[in-house]
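Q: What would this chain look like folded?
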Amino acid sequence: MNTRNLYDLYKQHPVITTDSRNCPEGSIFIALKGETFDGNKFAAQALASGCSYAVVDNSEYVEENDERYILVSDTLQTYKALAREHRRQFDIPVIGITGTNGKTTTKELIASVLRQKYNVLATEGNFNNDVGVPKTLFRMNKEHEIAIIEMGASHPGDIKTLAETAEPDYGIITNVGLAHLQGFGSLKGVIRTKGELYKFLASKEDSTVFINADNNNLLEILPDNVWVTPYSTNKDNEEDCIIGEVVSCEPYLTMRWHEPLNELSERGEEMTWHEVRTQLIGRYNIDNVLAAVAVGINFGVEPKKICKALNEYVPTNNRSQLITTGSNRLIVDAYNANPTSMLAALDNFEQIKAENKMVIIGQMNELGANSDEEHRRIVNRIRQMSMSNVWLVGEAYAKIKCHYQKFNNAEEVKKELKENPKKDCLILIKGSNSLHLSELTELL
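A: My prediction, written as C-alpha cells:
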C-alpha cells in the first residue's frame, strides 16, 4: 500500500496511535520500534483494543487472512510519510525551528506572539524528534492558520529528515554550540546538521530565514537564494535589522527593540523603541525574544501586540524560571544542559546582584570524548566567580580536583538538603533533565 492509498484510509479513520495502551475506537495503530521495544509485538493487542488497522513491518506478527494488518517495509518511514501527506493538505505557513539552545523557548515566544492574530499550531513540550514531529503534524486541521514545528537533532542528517517531513516555508536556527558531541563529533558537525534546515529552505521557492545577524556561524552557512529577515543587538546593523538591546536584568530580562530604519523610512515613520518586560531569566534570552519579534513583524502582528505577548509569556518548563519559595529564590534552568548554555547561565548568574548566592550544577550528557575537558571548563569558570557555595552533581565531576561539594545524583542532594536546609539564598539550578534536578525545588 503506497502513502496516498494509506492516507485515503487515514481520512476514514483519522486518528493515529503508536501506543497500544491508547487505542481509540476506529484508530490506526503504527508499530514503531525503539532500542528497548518493538511495537510489532503489540499489533494484535491494539486491534483487540479498538484499532481498525495495524501498520507493521514484521510479517511474523501478521495474522493470516486478516486484512486489518498492513505490512510495510519500515513503519517509522511510513509514519513520517503519512504525516507529510497530511501536512500537504493544508496551505498554511509552516515555521521550522532548530538550534543548540533556546529553540523551545523561542518556539513558545513565537507562538505567543502569533496567537495575537492567528490560530496557531505549535509543537507541544519537546516533541521535536522523528516521532514527535509527525505527532504534531497530525494535529493540524482546517482551523489552523500557521504552524510552528520544533526540530531537535543528535546526529548528522536528523534535521534533514525532519525538514523533509514537515516541509517548512520559514526557518530559524537559534544558534549553534557544543552539544550532543557524541553524535556530531565536533562543533563543525553541529553547524552542518543545523544548517540542513537552511539547505531545505533553499530548495523551495519564496522561503524565508529569520537569522541572528550577530552570529557568524549562521551567516557563513546562509544560502543566497532565500529571503532573509535579520535581527541583531549591534546598532551598526540598525539600517537593515530589527534591533534589540538589554535595558536591565535584575533578575528578569527587560529589553527594547525597534524595526529596521530602512523599512521605517520607506513607510515614512519615525524610529520608535518598544520596551518589553519579560518574565524570563537571563540576558541571553534577548536573542530568543528578538526572533519572536522578527516573526511577528513578518506576519503583520502590531508592535503593541508583540510586546503584550512577550510581556505576558511565563515559562513553565524548567527553562529560565524564577521560583520564589518560603525559604529561597531559585533560578531553575534544569531541562537541558550543554557547555554553551551552561556558560551562558553562569555568566548571567554572576551579573545578578544578590547576597548568599549558590549554584547547584549538574553534569552535561552526550559529550563523548570531550566530556572531561568540558566539565573541567565549567568548574574553572565557577572558580572565576569566587563562589564558595557550589554543589556539583553527577559522576562527570568526580575526577575533577576542587573544594566544591560533590554528589553522584539528585537523591544524594535531597538527603543533604533534608539534613542541612538552605535559607535566604539565590540559587541557580542547572543541569541535564535526566538528573531530575528540578525535583530539588520541593526542598528549597
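The chain has a mean pLDDT of 92.
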